[in-house]
Amino acid sequence: MRLPLRIREIAPRLLDRRGSVAVIMALLMPMLVIMVGFSVDYAYAVDIQHRLNAAADTGVLAALSPTTANESGSYATAYGSGNSSGNPMWDLATNTFAANTQSFPVTTVTKTVTVAKGTSGSLTSYTATISWTASVPTWFSGLIGIYNVPIAGVSTATVTPALYQDFYMMIDLSGSMDFASTTSEQARLQAVNQDDISTYPYGCQFACHFAGYTGFTLSRNGGKATNPQVTSCPQPGTATCIQLRVDAIGSALQILLQDATSTATLTNQYRVGLYPFVQYLDKYYPLTYTLNGSTTNSSTINYASVNIATLSDNGGTGTVNSVLGSGGTHFENAMPSMLTAVQAYGIGTGATVANRQPWVFLITDGMENTQTYTVAGNFQGGSNPSAFNSSLCTALKTAGVKVAVMLITYPTLSPEDPGFSGDENGIANTQIPDLPAAAQACATTGFYWQATTYSDIQNDMQAMFAAATNNPRLTQ
After folding, report:
1. pTM of the model
2. How far apart (Å, rounded) are the C-alpha atoms in residues 264 and 266?
């Protein structure tokens, strides 16, 4: 059977076109291979560039770290005379970069390291810069005569150390801070705590410290009457006690005191004081230079901080809590009192020992409640849980005080009991989503942390102190 004439005329042309495409593909294939190969070479060069930049970042941050200053005696000594061997800043930037790049597969690395000293207001600032160039050998691009891909980068860090600083540890000791420090610790507490079971059928979810309640006492002996009562619980998972969040804060305060002691490069560089609050703010342990005392000596800030849980809201009947007051969480009283306390010591830039820069470290779960509890044993004003009013922090910041905030995550209260205290738990649960925004608005920009666990609290306390003492930051 013969094909129709029209098809017989077109068929040879189609066959010719298929042949043309094959020829074109054959001609283009080397170019496509080269393009793919060049893309591989380029991606590899970009990866090496990122790694070199990271090495340069590490070098400039190391040069300006408080450790470098501490080992040299001061930032001024570490700076020395600037850009020459024998000056700790310059040497550390140079050597750190070299150590981190010595095994890189590059043809050449040319670097320029500079350190500089300037002024920032009344303080001295230091800047370290590493600029570098390199060539990355190619694998495929050499087929067309491209044997290396040039790359380059610049890393710059700066630090403006406020030499003399005061740290006011403003610690929320209201009842809601007596949650356990971890999920497992909370399970241990609830397994033994049957506070007010007749009125509150789910049991008290806090380690209540009020007269007639047993939760706090149970946390001090691990739920076993045969154990002695402890004043602090430094670690979770200990048979002799159940660690509360306020215990975790006490342990974290020890870390801050240790960091302040170990990183100080000047006499009387740092002072720390403890200012807990419930209904009122208490000048519990005013600012002190002595930060390395014994935790077993009741006259030291170290002892006071590790045993801070003993001040937990106990209904206004305790010796110390008669100063703190009781019931609710009263930011409206505490924040103005904090400003007055800071003003009494002075607000400066940190440039001299007599012109100190103040920091308030606010540690709280952020839940405000304007109710009060009287020594007669009753609550007044009703339960009014809400996210605290961050505008109360404005006066501190306007006066020149730096505010760092650690928000202890407020756990969802479950189950809710609408019949208890006007659905206190249900109302509190509706406020939880608003707490982070309020806490962040209170903090000086860049100085907000949120912690949930024991480890978070410890790590964030270290981060807060490191940030406040002006750890170097990358600027390029």
Report:
1. 0.77
2. 6
- Number of domains making up the chain: 2
Token pair recorded at residue 151: 């790359």
Q: Is there a single domain that holds both residue 322 and residue 265?
A: yes
For the stretch 166-222, pLDDT in tens is: 999 999 999 889 989 998 998 898 888 877 665 555 556 678 888 778 889 999 999
The domain in which residue 71 lies consists of 28-159
User: Omega into 415 within 30° of 0, i.e. cis?
Assistant: yes
In a domain, 102, yes or no: yes
